């Protein structure tokens, strides 16, 4: 696979049709006769953003469409928003290619592009195996290359609680693998959120309850349900105890903090895989069930808890995403709730999507995209051939499918194998969620993905000492047409410069610095150059 991509790159066979994900509409010069090498003084990209500010944080309704026209002397990129400009710059970076002599080329191309789905996400599990912040940031970089726009941070779970809470510091002190080295401080979380924002990526945190909470217990005595062996406590604890007022007081305080720390409108509240065994064994819960008229239907008890939790979240002005069991168990949720479909072993996921959308809820698909599951060979093709709207339903139902997420669960994934397990496989899902439904040719996808894989490898592995024309790689000359500054974030400057020309990637994240108004600017890149 790497050999094919390298051959394409060296031969210069990288037309607009090689872009990943494939743009919606591409018109390029036939046969490449209008392909020209960039000249040092006229290789310019004019970027125009209609909205004269950075829109704060990206959200579900952010405009990501853009138009891009390239030629030998001047290229034009226009978008309504900074987020569309970011997507367009990623495309532009892939249109620049270099021959074996080191000369950069640009084909004459017109592109009109926009995403097919608004939610294009990637889930990372940082509880089962702790992932260093640098690994998360590197993943965000590659997500941006693939035009993903949501980082679903499954930050805590049964094995560990690495989130360092200001309101409840004992949660990480007693629940993390290591309370010093294996936690995410408030500054860490802010760094991840801002790093993602500069790449047009939302961060949606997940605090899954009432199940998947074993790690919460040591730092929050009384929160979890005591399990019984007959009439005697067994010393084991189960899910969150749903019958105590103190439970809801705790959740009120914790999610007040979480709602403040994570600025996105949505929180993921989990709600999956609740084991009722412990609840059944507890005499106090049994008595509560009788008083409430629940009988022996513990799904009703789960619904009781979830509904109270959702009321808490709503009081903070937040929306929520829940795993499909919340819907399956009949919990009453707000009409704008997003139901995350993940189960394949309970029947075809297409039937679940049909049920969710028929009930009027928005659906998010992950069931066929669990990338932690691997098989021999090119299993990206299986993910690539999924069609999210392939279910029996009305056009109105299909409008309710807002997108999907690739999931990388951490049972067998840590920092040592995260990148090769994710990429380029996740790219197949990125294209399925961005590109037109008709983009399905596996041979064409293989050609483009092979080339893109080589680009990713050079981006991730380029040595920090690389140079182009004797200058640090990726030095970008910026001419201001209006009062606008595109400054690379200080700590990222060197690595960003090294990524830019040596990997053919323009470092785009300087577009949206805090307090910077980027309306129209001109970017000049050196055209010629060997690198070491």
UniProtKB/TrEMBL annotation:
In the UniProt record, the signal sequence range is 1-18
Q: What is its EC number?
A: 3.2.1.52
User: Which InterPro entries does the protein's record reference?
Assistant: Beta_hexosaminidase_sua/sub, GH, Glyco_hydro_20_cat, Hex-like_dom2, HEX_eukaryotic_N
Sorted keywords for this record are:
Disulfide bond, Glycoprotein, Glycosidase, Hydrolase, Lipid metabolism, Lysosome, Signal, Zymogen
Give the EC class as a word: hydrolase
User: Recorded GO terms, molecular function?
Assistant: beta-N-acetylhexosaminidase activity
Please list the residue ranges annotated as the Beta-hexosaminidase eukaryotic type N-terminal domain. 57-95
Any one GO BP annotation for this protein? ganglioside catabolic process
Recorded catalytic reaction(s): these are:
N-acetyl-beta-D-galactosaminyl-(1->4)-beta-D-3-sulfogalactosyl-(1->4)-beta-D-glucosyl-(1<->1')-ceramide + H2O = a beta-D-3-sulfogalactosyl-(1->4)-beta-D-glucosyl-(1<->1')-ceramide + N-acetyl-beta-D-galactosamine; N-acetyl-beta-D-6-sulfogalactosaminyl-(1->4)-alpha-L-iduronyl-(1->3)-N-acetyl-D-6-sulfogalactosamine + H2O = alpha-L-iduronyl-(1->3)-N-acetyl-D-6-sulfogalactosamine + N-acetyl-D-6-sulfogalactosamine; a ganglioside GM2 (d18:1(4E)) + H2O = a ganglioside GM3 (d18:1(4E)) + N-acetyl-beta-D-galactosamine; Hydrolysis of terminal non-reducing N-acetyl-D-hexosamine residues in N-acetyl-beta-D-hexosaminides
Catalytic positions? 273 (proton donor)
One Pfam family named in its UniProt record: Glycohydro_20b2
Q: What domain of life is recorded for the organism? A: Eukaryota
Any one cellular component term from GO for this entry? lysosome
State where the protein is found. Lysosome
Domain named Glycoside hydrolase family 20 catalytic: residues: 117-436
Assembly, in brief, is:
There are 3 beta-hexosaminidase isozymes: isozyme A (hexosaminidase A) is a heterodimer composed of one subunit alpha and one subunit beta (chain A and B); isozyme B (hexosaminidase B) is a homodimer of two beta subunits (two chains A and B); isozyme S (hexosaminidase S) is a homodimer of two alpha subunits. The composition of the dimer (isozyme A versus isozyme S) has a significant effect on the substrate specificity of the alpha subunit active site.
Q: Which family does it belong to?
A: Belongs to the glycosyl hydrolase 20 family.
**Annotated function:** Hydrolyzes the non-reducing end N-acetyl-D-hexosamine and/or sulfated N-acetyl-D-hexosamine of glycoconjugates, such as the oligosaccharide moieties from proteins and neutral glycolipids, or from certain mucopolysaccharides. The isozyme S is as active as the isozyme A on the anionic bis-sulfated glycans, the chondroitin-6-sulfate trisaccharide (C6S-3), and the dermatan sulfate pentasaccharide, and the sulfated glycosphingolipid SM2. The isozyme B does not hydrolyze each of these substrates, however hydrolyzes efficiently neutral oligosaccharide.
Protein name in UniProt: Beta-hexosaminidase subunit alpha
Identify the species of origin.
Answer: Chelonia mydas
